[in-house]
Amino acid sequence: MNKLKKANIQLCADAGSKYCPCHLAYSGDCIKCPIIRGEKTCDCLWQGVCVYSELKHSQNTPMCERKESLCNIKEVKDLDSDIFLMKIQVPKDMIRDLCSPGAYVLIKSKDKNSDIFNTPISVMDVDMKSCILEVVVKSRGIKTKNIINFDQVWVKGPYFNGIFGIKQIKGAYKINTVVVLNGLSQVNSINIIKRLLENKNNVEVFINNKATVLQVVIDKLINLGVNIYETDLNKDKDFLIDYIRRNDVAFVYSGGSDLFNKYVMNIVDSVDENINLAVSNNNLICCGEGVCGACTIDVNGQKVKSCKAQIDSRDFLNSRNL
After folding, report:
1. What pLDDT score was predicted for residue 47?
2. Where does the Succinate dehydogenase/fumarate reductase N-terminal domain lie (predicted)?
3. Does residue 146 contact residue 109 with C-beta atoms inside 8 Å?
4. 220-267, pLDDT tens digit by residue?
5. Is CATH 3.40.50.150 what the domain over 67-159 is classified as, yes or no?
6. Mind listing the pLDDT tens digit for each residue in 39-74?
7. Is the pLDDT of residue 133 over 80?
8. What is the 3-state secondary structure (H, E, C) of the chain?
9. What interhelical angle do 189-198 and 215-224 show, nearest 10?
10. Class for domain 164-282, per CATH?
């Protein structure tokens, strides 16, 4: 019971959205609400709309499910070896939520009907006025290599749990922040940086130049007006440590592999373990709804559905065998 209580203080990324209550709530497996799970005490610490009340009120109404839409591909651009930028026209009601930090969609080729071909793709950027979604796709398997061969693509979303630490990103206000990026995980940084800038934070970006660096991301960062350091983060570790220390950095986002994110976490913690940390969610995601179980991981001895549950970044990285 005590272990369950520890896990339950984690926020579900869908809580409070129009997609709550979800399938897990209706089946009695809600991530957030212990009452729905059949426990006797309410200890979810959720300060938004009560999920249990919403479930009771919506018993006789259809559940709001994410829709799959066949969308026109407006442009495909070759960025690197087997890496493509896609601009996709998506429905207006979808685009509104895709500007959230950590937003992603499930995409599959036009010629595939089964959901087993869905692949999670991070949102890079959105054009709200034109309803254009920009994503970067690496062609490396049956799910992705055929996506660009048609003038349309299936898009399902929005989903929100592409990063751990959404609360810390949205709560950062008028502080010094650092964004550290490595490889293709750099693409999900645009929404994060936009939110940090909207909240009047100072943002400095460090990109590991020993991994893939996408010029399309660099151009967007330049347009946002942030300072960019392209550097070898292995050799120049002390430079990053010194920057964080000298500038009283209070928040760091690390976008990279789990191994890279743990490396950055150790750098941050060498300065101050109280600095807020957010990291990219690199776990296997299949259905995006916590139903299939493919995303389930062990954190502090608890089974956690990582496609929906917000996990403390340090707890997550320390639970990985890296």
Report:
1. 66
2. 263-313
3. yes
4. 999 999 999 999 999 999 999 999 999 999 999 999 999 999 999 999
5. no
6. 888 877 776 778 878 888 777 677 888 999 999 999
7. yes
8. CHHHHHHHCCCECCCCCCCCCCHHHHCCCCCCCCCCCCCCCCCCCCCCCCHHHHHHHCCCCCCCCCEEEEEEEEEEEEEECCEEEEEEECCHHHHCCCCCCCCEEEEEECCCCCHHHCEEEEEEEEECCCCEEEEEEECCCCCCCCHHHCCEEEEEEEECCCEECHHHHHHCCCCEEEEEECHHHHHHHHHHHHHHHHCCCEEEEEEECCCCCCHHHHHHHHHHCCEEEEECCCCCHHHHHHHHHHCCCCEEEEECCHHHHHHHHHHHHHHCCCCEEEEECCCCCCCCCCCCCCCEEEECCEEEECCCECCCHHHHHHHCCC
9. 10
10. alpha beta
pLDDT for position 141: 83
Cα separation of 54 and 41, whole Å? 18
97 near 269, Cβ under 8 Å? no
Please report, for the chain, the start and end positions of each structural domain, with discontinuous segments joined by +.
67-159, 164-282
Which tens digit of pLDDT belongs to each residue from 92-129?
999 999 999 999 999 999 999 888 999 999 999 999 99
Average pLDDT over residues 11-28: 89
Residue 184 CB partners (closer than 8 Å, separation 6+): 83, 136, 138, 212, 214
